[in-house]
Amino acid sequence: MNTLSARGAAGLDVRGIGMTSQRTRDRMVQRLRDKGVTDERVLDAIATVPRHLFVDEALSSRAYDDDALPIGHGQTISQPHTVAMMTAAILEGADGRDRVLEIGTGSGYQTAVLAALVSQVYTVERIGPLLDRARKRLRGLAVRNVRFKHEDGNCGWPSEAPFDAAVVTACASHVPAALASQLAQGAPLVIPVRTASGQGLRLLTRSGEGWRRRDLGEVSFVPLLQGATS
Question: Would the pLDDT of 9 be above 80?
Fold first, then answer.
């Protein structure tokens, strides 16, 4: 697990000022509580991770609104409530998780929240420039318990399997077979999937040869695509 200091290794200002200050961040956390997020471990992590450093400077004043924001390459940083909900889902019923797979690094924000709560994050991103930017950002924040891979997320990370949990940050038409095979027995998978009415976030848990399923609500994610781009 990783704890952020006031300044990361590259001198990045974790504290922020004005609309990016800790007070603004704390107000966002209270809004998440009001929306039903109850896992204090997750709320503490979100209170610590400086979301304003994961968006373009021009958007930093909106960093602590509960909105998805563009990060380039047709991708977005998920809204804080979605990040909190997905993270809480994989931690539910466990003291912690050792090895967590993340499909879709994006800005690295969800990665940083996970890194504050689990022993090791293995994150896969298909868009090379996004992965490079996220790696640089997390290293600048002295986050050391993350490994990065430039790959088609549908493939997962077979050489490091099995994983204790997995989070997918793009919408799939179905659960990729490779991801299913890389989860330990009883490990949770949180994934947005296409539904008749749009998209639904699902918590799936491996049980024997099948899955236990719980619906977590409607969401809006970019699609899970095949292939990797540089």
Answer: no
